Backbone:
């Protein structure tokens, strides 16, 4: 039942160094931060029913949550998650025109 790793890796045509690199992999600080920001962005986006765009979400994260984040990073992360703000049009009432007929 016990197979040696070298024989399994050679059967799969995978280098031993590749296996150990995969086994000892840990996420970088940047990747950890980006994942945390993705969670926060998604929470703000869902809380506001998808109306907030990347600028307003970035401002919310900066001022309310005291997170150092730029607009561009929020834009990139929102694109990765396929989040787009909904365009809410202001209601417009067409003015009534009165014509003076003699």
Residues:
């Amino acid at each position: 039942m016990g197979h040696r790793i070298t024989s399994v890796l050679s059967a799969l045509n995978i280098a031993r160094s590749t296996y150990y690199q995969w086994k000892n992999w840990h996420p970088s600080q940047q990747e950890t931060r980006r994942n945390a920001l993705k969670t926060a962005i998604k929470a703000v986006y869902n809380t506001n029913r998808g109306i907030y765009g990347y600028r307003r979400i970035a401002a919310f994260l900066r001022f309310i949550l005291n997170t150092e984040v730029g607009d561009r990073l929020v834009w990139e992360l929102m694109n990765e998650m396929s989040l787009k703000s909904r365009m809410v049009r202001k209601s417009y009432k067409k003015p009534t025109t009165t014509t003076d007929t003699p």
